[in-house]
Amino acid sequence: MNRIRSPSLLGFLASALVAAGPARAQTIPPNAYGALRWRLIGPHRGGRVLAVAGVPGDPATFYFGAVDGGVWRTRNAGVTWEPLFDDEPIASIGALALAPSDPNVIYAGTGEASIRSDITYGAGVYKSTDGGAHWRALGLADTRHIGKVLVDPRNPDVVLVAALGHAYGPNSERGVFRSSDGGRTWTKVLYKDPDTGAIDLAADPADPEVVYAALYQARRPPWEQYPPDEGPGSGLYKSTDGGATWTPLAGHGLPAGPLGRIGLAVGRRARVYALIGAATGGGLYRSDDGGATWQLAGSDPRITSRSWYFCRVTVDPQNPDVVYVPNVALLKSTDGGKTFGVLKGQPGGDDYHELWVDPTSPTRMIVGSDQGAVVTLDGGRTWSSWYNQPTAQFYHVVTDDAFPYRVYGAQQDAGTAGVASRSDFGTITFRDWAPVGAGESGYIAPDPLDPDIVYGGDTYGGVHRFDRRTGQSQDISPWPVSSFGVPMPQRRYRFTWTSPLVFDRVDRHTLYHGAQMVLRTRDGGLHWETISPDLTGAAARPTSTDTGPTTVANAAARGYGVVYAIAPSPRAAGVVWVGSDDGLIHRTTDGGQHWQNVTPQGLPPWSTISLLEASPLDAAVAYAAVDRHRLDDFAPYISRTRDGGAHWTRADSGIAPQAYVQAVRADPERPGLLYAGTETGVYVSFDDGDHWQSLQLNLPVASVRDLAVHGRDLIAATHGRSFWVLD
Fold it and tell me: Is the peptide bond before 390 cis (omega within 30 degrees of 0)?
């Protein structure tokens, strides 16, 4: 069969090199490859949404903010959605607020505030005065994570912002901020300390001068499954002057603390609800006198489950006894919070985060969840679809050798997807993609000898073998017991959320899997063998009895440290590079019989080796993408070796200061042509990493967690805008 090939990505970039002359410096003008375009291939399956809003009285217009996919609008009640934020330099949306007096005025608080392990940071507050067509940055960039924006219903220029602050470290730009000039200037009006931020705000609908705020002391430890959920800084506050000054609310029926995350809602007749996460006394509290006294309305464990991730409450604007609590399910109470039931007719999926109810017609709602945003016009009996939102959050990407080739990845909170890179239908439709077994966070590894067999990882070490022809999925995990929730000293294998799973590039029968050591199977997972010692810096027998969060100081003694990246060489049999999440790199040249520590000199401890790339052209050359954002260091780090790891050189000049690097890939044909996926987009280097420049082109800003080169195409796995192909 003759195949017609279009001009290749490699061809365009090689032409750019030729046009620029000797390419040993950053001299390639972007217009030399500016004609290239990224192409969205989906899947159109929604990702996590924490921010939703609607226009009161308008049954067709709603908005949502994806956690790394920008702001979206529908004008037909969720039948279709359009992106509004693609031209902005940040994509993580934590809060949305429309001015009640002018719904064309929209404030977006960037940076998601439910601080799970894959959060994406923001850059302050943005404002639109034309319904989202254009945006302007308003500052507060160092808040990073914003939980709520509240606009005065009488004046669109008066706005309050609940800023959580840095997730991984202390900072002072956190708390409640107020502006009376539309965001041109800000005043910090409520602040506790560098470890405590604000998470929620709610105003009395009868008197906008009365506002309630929730402070939240929280920190995302680098290696904990869940963040600490309580702190002495957390608490409730009330203002009677529109947020200019605040008074703490404590006692009088509220739990003594320490408190965790708090969600707030204010209904008619001075009814105030506070959903309080706490080890002792947590639950839904209710005040019928504007916060002067409180009583525990309900303590159903479903409403406070994983309160650090959920903990929102919404009250019906017309009936204060009707209360909604989004959690694993969307829960509803009709008796003031005493009892809750699952809202009938709710959409499928799980993990609901935010609900907006139309104050003019409470049967009109929009809800945001881990699977996107959906709209109901009939009180929840029917809902729109979330299979029309290309905001999927992928961790890694790999392709097979089918024609057209398929693109695979695991999507956060939605499972796996295998998507055709092209379609016979003119556009890629639902017919061209399907799940392929496995879990939401793992690597996917198509069998290089049989593209209908796909291997996939799962959280904390699970491995599945999926047959596309029959739909059968077989558990072939190296160990039958999941390590999730098991104390570290009791784990036989230390797997991580995204444990690497990759085929050897020379011996295509061999599949590698990473724990604290490297595991290998040569028979499709029927048998596994260990081919390395512990390649991390963790204590062989953890003895630490420390309590509290895991930190750099105690992580090794507690037994932390996992293999985070595996890169078999495409050029030499038996050569495998391995990186850990505590900053170590090892290499074997004999298939695992012997290992050499080749960690770059000067690499700070506990740097995560997020991805290793073995050069497809030279077995002695490798590249390491190093990620330190969980230590509150957002700088980009790429290291390069040309002598088998004996010496390493920093190779990240030109990448933006806060664009920490998730992946680096080498072109299989052109020496020195590299691609990098960062927290804010894609970069290209024409001189082996000495200089980098943007390859963003028309790709919306998003966290690019991985890249793959397939023939003449470059594929990007974004963590909020699905898969894109540059071809």
Answer: no
Instruction: Look at residues 683, 445, 497 and name the one whose alpha carbon lies nearest to residue 608.
Output: 497
Q: Is residue 58 part of a domain?
A: yes
Q: Mean pLDDT, to the nearest integer, of 421-427?
A: 88
pLDDT, tens digit (0-9, with 9 covering 90-100), for 572-594:
999 999 999 999 999 999 999 99
Cα 502 from chain centroid (whole Å): 23
Asked whether residue 612 is assigned to any structural domain, the reply reads: no
- Which segments within 511-656 are labelled E, that is strand? 511-514, 518-521, 529-530, 563-568, 576-580, 585-588, 596-597, 608-614, 622-627, 637-641, 649-650
| 172 in a structural domain | yes
Note the helical H segments in 386-439.
none
Read off the CATH number of the domain in which 75 is found. 2.130.10.10
The answer to pTM > 0.85 is: yes
Q: Which residues pair with 368 in a beta bridge?
A: 354, 373
Q: What is the pLDDT of residue 14?
A: 55
Q: Is the peptide bond before 43 cis (omega within 30 degrees of 0)?
A: yes
Start-to-end C-alpha separation, the chain: 21
Look-up of token digits 């290239």: 36
Cβ 699 vs Cβ 683: under 8 Å: no
Structure tokens at 669: 């044909």
- CA dist., res. 293 & res. 403, Å (int): 67
Domain count, the chain: 1
CA distances from 129 to 226, 653, 721 (A): 38, 38, 25
Provide the residue range defining the domain that includes 246.
Answer: 42-376
What would you measure as the largest C-alpha separation in the chain, in angstroms? 80
Look at residue 143 and give its three-state secondary structure: helix
Residue 210, Cβ density class (10 Å: 0-12 exposed, 13-18 middle, ≥19 buried): buried
Torsion of CA 153, 156, 162, 168, to 10 degrees: 150
The answer to whether 178 and 159 are in contact (CB under 8 A) is yes
**Long-range CB contacts (< 8 A, 24+ apart) of 82-85?**
83/700, 84/128, 84/132, 84/133, 84/135, 85/126, 85/132, 85/135
Give the pLDDT confidence of 661-715 residue by residue, as tens digits. 999 999 999 999 999 999 999 999 999 999 999 999 999 999 999 999 999 999 9
Band (pLDDT 50/70/90 cuts) for residue 11 is low
Residue 290 lies in a domain: yes
